[in-house]
Amino acid sequence: MYPPPADAEQRRAVAPVICYPTRTLPRPDLDLYRTARKTAQKISEVLVAPRDAATFTVTAGQFFRISSVEGPQVGDLNLWNAADLSGRFYSGKTRALHGTHLTTGERMWSAFPHLRPMATIVEDTLDWYGIDAFGGSVHDVIGTRCDPYTGNLLAGTQYHHCCHSNLTRALADHLGCSVAEAEPHVHDVLNVFMCTGFTRDTGQYFMKASPVRPGDHLEFFAEIDLLGALSACPGGDCSAEHSSDTAACHPLLVEVFAPSDGALAGWAQPQVSGYDRSHGR
Ligand SMILES: [Zn+2]
User: Fold this and answer.
1) Is residue 280 part of a domain?
2) Count of domains observed in the chain
3) Is 22 a domain residue?
């Protein structure tokens, strides 16, 4: 290790600057969404089996709710533009804009060149949790998704029910294609109900038992037509381990609600990014 320079403490004491101040970020009209939500009727639901995934579709202007049922369980969520799978959720940019964990009023943003809000969180029954003494919080966009490749790298295993594989199978079934064709569309997730952070001493990604209990839910407003896939993680509440069949696992419920006609008067789907894409050429 290099010896610290004479002004090391001075350099460390420089105050941080927020990379992306959100003052100019377009704000969702949560009052309008909530008013519309009061008129909404349930139109569909899917129960995601433990250690498996399921897809669902939501039309722009509808709501979808992910609920804990039966027992504490973490979910890994992928979202795509239903009409164009390249318009998929961009976990990294969402993290840069909103921080490491999402809650009410924050949005899931799509990948370049689209970069528009795909879904807005309108209700979060775990918003009371905040940031705990370990630096942990709920609904992260810092994890990737548990996957068989990392398990194989670290332990030499061949495990087939990680979220990555669950999402791949569910998408393949929805598209009517092979897992090899579906796999490249699977992307980094919103870790619904998962409690995570980084250790202060080593900066390592940590997880701890999710505070979620049956009845808790996270609800979204669909800003565009969406295809979603949700995996009920083999980690269960992620208190101990994932990438195995060891943890107690429970299903997750996804419900879709449609507001009445006219309830969203004045609302329009967000446009794709206004950048001209010439990249200086
Ligand atoms: Zn997982």
Assistant:
1) no
2) 1
3) no
Cβ-contact 32, 267 below 8 angstroms: yes
CA of 51 to the centre of ligand 1 (A): 8
Query: Is the Cβ–Cβ distance between 246 and 18 less than 8 Å?
Result: no
Q: How far is the CA of 72 from the centre of ligand 1 (A)?
A: 14
Residue 4 lies inside a defined structural domain of this protein? no
Q: Specify the pLDDT at position 239.
A: 83
How remote is the CA of residue 238 from the centroid of ligand 1, in Å? 9
Q: Are 139 and 192 in contact (CB under 8 A)?
A: yes
Closest CA to 255 of 72, 74, 63, 127: 63
Condensed to tens digits (0 to 9), the pLDDT of residues 157-206 reads 999 999 999 999 999 999 999 999 999 999 999 999 999 999 989 999 99
Q: Compute the distance from residue 185 Cα to the ligand 1 centre, in Å.
A: 17
Domain span at residue 183 reads 42-258
CA distance 211 to 13: 35
Is residue 68 in some structural domain?
yes
Full-model pTM: 0.95
Distance 143 CA to ligand 1 centre (A): 10
Give the rounded distance of the alpha carbon of 93 from its chain centre: 12
List, for residues 87-121, the tens digit of each pLDDT value.
Answer: 999 999 999 999 999 999 999 999 999 999 999 99
